[in-house]
Amino acid sequence: MIMSEKSKQHVDSCRFCWMCHHICPIGNATGQERNTARARALGISLVNREAIDLSEIMDNIYECCTCGACVHDCITGWDPVMFTKETRLQAALEDKLPDYINKLVDNCLETGNAYGKAAMCSDLTEAIARHGKKTDTLLFLGSDARYMMCKQAKGAIEVLERAGVDFSVLSDEPDSGAALDFLIGAADETKEQMKKCAGALDGYKTVVVYDPNDAKAIKQLYPEYGVQTKAKVVTYTTYLAELIKSGALKVKNTGKAVVYQDPYQLSRDLGETEEPRTVISALAELSEFHLNREETVFAGNILMAQYMPKVMELVAKRRIFNAEAVGAKAIVTSSVSEYASLKAVAEDGFGIYSIEDLILG
Ligand code: SF4
Ligand code: SF4
After folding, report:
1. How many CB atoms lie under 10 A from the CB of residue 288?
2. Do 163 and 243 form a contact (C-beta atoms < 8 A)?
3. 354 φ/ψ angles, rounded to the nearest 5 degrees
């Protein structure tokens, strides 16, 4: 398999160590050694040595959620996310993607979202239509919220309305490219989609990005891939923290006892840990998971649930178990995807809230 020298070095250096074995959310959920970073490296190494074919490891390659917990914990500095994404790209180039991944890629290219959806729900369409006028500030909702979590997307709009912000929402918002990046890495198609999205953001002074997954793509991956946007890009959580601080957004403490689920894209990738806590502390009584901030544990996502739903359920259940272990009865998350995953498995009596849920009541 064609692979960069850097990735080859990481693959060959990684596979004999156990130091990140215990923090892999997928490995912990399935209990299978094959899901850990070192097992994945071993598989790629066998392909590089031509002992097995690339197609034989592709299911395993797509079992990684690219959360970067292993990267964060690896004291020797090896990067399993890098070589996993490079393997996905190479499989796409060699036409060796599993059918279930090809279908998602085709959806991204044909419909602009991985789910193949052609329309949003009517409530959200109406809410977006209220903000069709061009202003200086764009709220970027993202494909997961628009097509899979309509109520959350509508809530994000209503919170900014409550704060009196004059903002726009695009009825024909392009995909950020985050899904394609997850599926096939830094392929030409991914970069093209990102360039198209960057072009749509350029006419705005400020772009507020609702979904942490899109925020990571736009703030971290676009510069890495040479895609530029002139707009100032801020996460939704940072924007809310500023609105509360300035007094524009008036909120009431609900008195609910909660823990905050840091999305890894915000905490590990973008270094944003305190802004969401500023917001949630104004809305609820905040305590912490044992593993929080940069140490956070992935709680599931909508995209992977399309092809491994049972594992996503197990992942989300484990995170609820982590919350219960510190005596919490509710989790607040700022991630569209983690909200969907946690909500799908939470039992009666355990609360799953988005920040908008707490603000809007
Ligand atoms: S990524 Fe680092 S900690 Fe994890 S198995 Fe490889 S060498 Fe060990
Ligand atoms: S990136 Fe996350 S899911 Fe993938 S091997 Fe590392 S810890 Fe496991």
Report:
1. 13
2. yes
3. -90, 165
The whole-number pLDDT of residue 16 equals 62
CB of 20 closer than 6 A to ligand 1? yes
Determine the pLDDT at residue 111: 97
Run means of pLDDT, 10 residues per run, the chain, 361 residues: 89 78 93 90 94 97 97 90 97 97 98 96 98 98 98 98 98 98 98 98 97 98 96 98 97 96 98 98 97 98 98 98 97 98 98 97 88
Counts for the chain of helices (H) and strands (E), in that order = 21, 7
Examine the domain organization and report whether 142 and 232 are in the same domain: yes
Q: Which residues line ligand 2 (CB under 6 A)?
A: 24-27, 37, 64-70, 80-81
Q: Judge if 275 and 325 occupy the same domain.
A: yes
Domain total for the chain? Answer: 3
Last residue of a domain, one of 219, 241, 263: 241
Specify the ligand 2 atom closest to the Cα of 20: 7
* Same domain as 292, residue 263: yes
> Domain limits at 20?
5-97
Residues 260 and 350 grouped into a single domain: yes
Strand order in the sheet with 351-354: 285-287, 257-261, 330-333, 351-354
**How is residue 173 annotated by DSSP?**
P
- What residue owns the CA closest to ligand 2's atom 6? 70
24 lines ligand 1 (CB under 6 A): no
| Residues 294 and 183 occupy one common structural domain | no
For residues 322 and 290, is the Cβ–Cβ distance under 8 A? yes
